[in-house]
Every structure is written in structure tokens, then in C-alpha cells.
Design brief:
By secondary structure, the chain is an all-alpha fold. It has helices spanning 2-20, 25-50, 54-78, 86-110, 115-138, 149-153, 161-180, 182-190, 192-197, 202-219, 229-241, 247-271, 277-295, 301-332, 339-342, 349-355, 360-372, 388-411, 419-426, 432-442, and strands spanning 376-378, 384-386. α2 (25-50) packs parallel to α7 (161-180), α4 runs antiparallel to α5 (115-138) and α11 crosses α12.
Length: 463
């Protein structure tokens, strides 16, 4: 058993190393073509996603289906055997795809139907028509041998050097066009009305973006197929969106993710011959999407959870220090409560725990965090004492809270019984400039120093 397992592992490693090292000519050809396709698809898809035209890519891919079938039937009728020509089929797909987007634009412009509904209508219409025409194609004498199903599901392994040069050349043109009108596309995506006011022909730019989407769809038919090309247009830019808020960085990342998805899919397909390259390319892109969804720096779930957790810990520490201040204030008196005097008194653990009615686990977690941060110290009798750093932060927390309470009491009609809870919700996000503005607006209501508590002493901390 162990010998057979070692032989299988050794065979698998040979397949992987052969694919990764690109020893096979066909692997190098397919890799070059699909990688260029992924780069151009990711770049064009960036503007489609930001333009909120994600479904447009799906419409283009499905609208190409009847064009392929009609081109085959017409070419076969005019000249037997010419229907199998790739150029003829791509021309039919181009015309059909443009007609689909033109019909969508007409429905959106001349009716009250919204864009998403118009896209769905055109998608269903063209896909239904294409399916019916493919049934007709299959009934012709040469229909079974035409290879039209490869345009639907893709057949990356069938790419030859001429196809790669074609895909590469078109992809370079698409990338150059996107870079050349990057500023205009950016303005179109974020503020179409402002772009029109500045004199840009937004309809022309929109048409150019549509044409680029149609072009990428057409050159991707042979590799990933018209059913999966939409994933190559949308998954890379969506993945890139999790990492950055900068459009230039997003576009570059989308192009990289698109290229990596295609390259990784081709290598895996070459190593495992039973896996079709098109679906594996999409699955590789989906894996990158999952990684971005979880770990993306700007919108990833893990960074968002970490940020939320840190914010909640900061709020908890602030509430804990404010409770310490408000427990010591009745002992010292409002005029004698300073950071130096706050550090001289011990705070009973039970009184501190009951000040805001924290659950036991939550209370001990907050105290432990404050002790590790050097804000609280443990006394010999089992209580706690504020450090000088903790006392400074406690004074700042109380000042923030009371300033907002006074503002709510004097500037709004909020019930006085609710101002304490209302202040709890906003005090943690006030920056120094906002605090200074609050003091300026309150004027005489907030004398210099620590603002007085608007509640009876001993009850301010209870919410």
C-alpha cells in the first residue's frame, strides 16, 4: 500500500512539475493566450463593475449564441463547408452581441423598464433564440461536426498558435484603449452627469465600454466559452475591490487576478488531463475571490472583524475608565478630581463591576485588557487603582461624555432621561476638532475644565 501510494505521489509530482515548467508546447501556447485574455478581461470588467453593468457582460455572452448559429447556417447555405470558419462564427457573434446591447439600450431609453429588467429580457430572448437555432444546426448534415458546442462550453486545449496571436493582439489593443481613456472611464463610472457637464460624450464612452466588453467576450469564446466568460470579466475586479479604494490599484489588481486565474487554471488542467481548462480557470478565479473576501485589506471579512473587535475593545476600556472616574468623583469632589488625585485611591472590584452592570466575563476581560495596557493596576487588597496614563484617559472619556450630554440637553429636545444613553453612542467617535467645536457652540454652558455632570452625583455612570 505504501509503495503504491509513493508511486502515485511521484506520478502526480511529475505531472505538476511538467505543467509548471511548461515543457509542452501546447501548454505554453494555451497559457499565453488565456493569460492575455484574463488581463484584458479583468481590466474591462473593472469598469463594468463600477458602472454597475455586471449583468451586461452576461447579456453579451448569451446574445452571441444566435449570431454564431445564424452565421453557420448562412455560410453553409452560401458555400458548403465555410460555416466552420472561426472568423465567420466570430463575426456572427460580434453582430449578435452588439444587437443585444443595442436592444437593451433602446428598451431602457424608450420605455419605463429599468435597466436590470431590460438586461434580463434581452438575455432571455437571445438565449432562447440561440438554443432554438442550435437545434436547427444539429439537424443539418454538418451540424454535428461543426464544433459549435466548443463556443458554448469552451475548449482551451484546441487553441493553436494563430489563435494565441489573435487573442494576444486583440487583448493588447483592449488594454491600450482602457489605459488611454482611463480618466474618462473613471469619470463615467463615478459621476456620469458631471462628465456630461464637462463636455465628455458619455454616450460615446458608454458605447466604447460596451464594445470592449463584447470584444473580450468574443475572443474568450474558444477558451472558456460564452457561458463562463462572464465570470472572467466580473470575478477579478470584484476580488480586487476587497483590497483597495484606489481605482488605479483596483484596475491593476483586477488585471493581475485575471491573468493569474487563467494561468493557474491552464497549469492545473495540463497537470490533470481530465479537467477541462475553462471551468478550472473560473474555479481558480473563484478561489482568489474567496481569499479576497476573507482577507482583503479594505473590505475583507477578517480585517473588518478585527477592526470591529478593536473598536469594541476601545469603547469598553473607555467605559471602564469613565466608571472609575465617576466612582471616585463623589469621594474627591468635583473640584479636586484631577489625574493625580485619581491615582491615589483604590477602587473596589464589586463596585466597579456593578457600576455599569457588566456581565462577569465581559468585566474581567475589560479589566485584564486595561491592566495589560497599563491603564489600571491591581492593589494588594484585590481592588484596582488608576495609573497616571489611565487617569488621563478617564478624564478625557468623561469630558467627551459630558460635553455631548450638555449639547443634547441644551440644543435638542431629547428627553433628559435619555441623554446619558445618547452620549454613550457618540462620545467614542468625537475627534479633537469636534470637541473644540462643541465647546465653542456650548459657550457659557460649558465652563473651562471638566464639565459638571448634568446628573446627580453617583448616577452618571448608570445607563
Amino acid at each position: 500500500m505504501s509503495v503504491s501510494w509513493l508511486l502515485a505521489a511521484d506520478s502526480l509530482w511529475d505531472l505538476l512539475s511538467r505543467a509548471i515548467s511548461l515543457r509542452d508546447y501546447n501548454t505554453r501556447v494555451v497559457l499565453g493566450g488565456t493569460t492575455m485574455l484574463g488581463i484584458s478581461g479583468g481590466l474591462v470588467g473593472t469598469f463594468l463593475v463600477l458602472r454597475k453593468r455586471a449583468l451586461a457582460a452576461d447579456v453579451v455572452s448569451h446574445a452571441a449564441l444566435p449570431g454564431i448559429a445564424i452565421a453557420f447556417l448562412v455560410a453553409e447555405k452560401l458555400s458548403a463547408g465555410s460555416g466552420r470558419s472561426t472568423n465567420v462564427l466570430l463575426l456572427g457573434a460580434l453582430v449578435s452581441g452588439l444587437m443585444g446591447m443595442a436592444m437593451t439600450h433602446a428598451i431602457r431609453r424608450w420605455t419605463r423598464i429599468k435597466e436590470d429588467a431590460a438586461l434580463a429580457i434581452v438575455l432571455g430572448l437571445f438565449f432562447g433564440l440561440g438554443t432554438a437555432l442550435f437545434t436547427v444546426v444539429q439537424q443539418t448534415k454538418t451540424g454535428d461536426a461543426a464544433g459549435l458546442r466548443d463556443f458554448v462550453f469552451g475548449k482551451t486545449a484546441s487553441l493553436v498558435a494563430a489563435d494565441v496571436w489573435f487573442i494576444g493582439g486583440i487583448s493588447v489593443v483592449v488594454v491600450c484603449l482602457c489605459c488611454g481613456v482611463f480618466k474618462e472611464f473613471s469619470l463615467l463610472c463615478f459621476d456620469e452627469e458631471f462628465a456630461a457637464a464637462r463636455g465628455y460624450r458619455t454616450s460615446l464612452l458608454d458605447g466604447l465600454l460596451t464594445l470592449l466588453a463584447v470584444t473580450v467576450t468574443l475572443i474568450g469564446l474558444q477558451s472558456v466559452g460564452l457561458l463562463l466568460i462572464v465570470a472572467l470579466l466580473l470575478i477579478p475586479p470584484t476580488s480586487a475591490r476587497f483590497w483597495t479604494n484606489d481605482l488605479r490599484v483596483m484596475a491593476a489588481l483586477a488585471a493581475v487576478f485575471g491573468g493569474v486565474s487563467c494561468a493557474g487554471g491552464v497549469v492545473l488542467s495540463a497537470a490533470f488531463s481530465k479537467l477541462a481548462a475553462g471551468p478550472v480557470i473560473v474555479l481558480t478565479g473563484s478561489a482568489l475571490f474567496v481569499v479576497s473576501l476573507v482577507f482583503g485589506r479594505q473590505r475583507g471579512l477578517w480585517p473588518k472583524w478585527q477592526s470591529q473587535r478593536q473598536f469594541e475593545q476601545r469603547i469598553g476600556r473607555s467605559d471602564l475608565l469613565r466608571a472609575c472616574y465617576e466612582l471616585l468623583e463623589p469621594i474627591l469632589g468635583p473640584d479636586q478630581t484631577t489625574p493625580e488625585t485619581l491615582t491615589q485611591f483604590e477602587i473596589d472590584e464589586l463596585e466597579l463591576s456593578a457600576a455599569r452592570q457588566w456581565p462577569s466575563g465581559r468585566f474581567h476581560s475589560l479589566v485584564s485588557t486595561a491592566v495589560r495596557a497599563g491603564l489600571l493596576g491591581e492593589s494588594a487588597s484585590g481592588g484596582y487603582q488608576l495609573t497616571l496614563q489611565g487617569a488621563d484617559k478617564a478624564c478625557d472619556a468623561v469630558r467627551r461624555h459630558r460635553l455631548w450630554e450638555i449639547y443634547l440637553l441644551t440644543q435638542t429636545d431629547l428627553d433628559p432621561r435619555l441623554v446619558d444613553r445618547g452620549a454613550d453612542g457618540i462620545e467614542h467617535v468625537l475627534d479633537p476638532d469636534q470637541l473644540a467645536e462643541l465647546e465653542r457652540r456650548l459657550g457659557s454652558e460649558s465652563p473651562p475644565g471638566m464639565p459638571p455632570s448634568p446628573h446627580p452625583i453617583g448616577t452618571a455612570a448608570e445607563t
